[in-house]
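Workshop exercise sheet. Pairs work together: one partner reads the sequence aloud, the other fills in the structure field after running the prediction. Swap roles for the next sheet.
Pair: D.N. / O.F.
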Amino acid sequence: MDVVEMAIFVDELGCLQARAEYPHEALGGFLSSDVQASLSMCRRVREWLADARSAGAFDGNSCTVTVDDGIVRIESRYAEVDESGRVCRLPLADFHEALDLWEAAIRAEIRRDNG
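Structure field:
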């Protein structure tokens, strides 16, 4: 993922979090709040992406995601930043890569928890 700067970490409460740099803050919010540390939700997002043209928007807890002409648009409903940080656009390939990284982090946490 050359364009999107993103950090994945476990917060002080033990929850997996993603933080993406401007102008992609909504990506981190989507992964942290909507996908959460759920492999089944990752799978659901991937299934939606496979049929995104006919499936319409993906509405999560805090974000709405759409795909048009290979560009993913994530709009955060609750971001405490200006409009440019509430909405991010990134190539579909970068979104897939972010999802891959998030899923790998979930799997690593599961392995760590199962010791």
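Discussion prompt: The first strand starts at residue 6 and ends at 10. What would you look at next?
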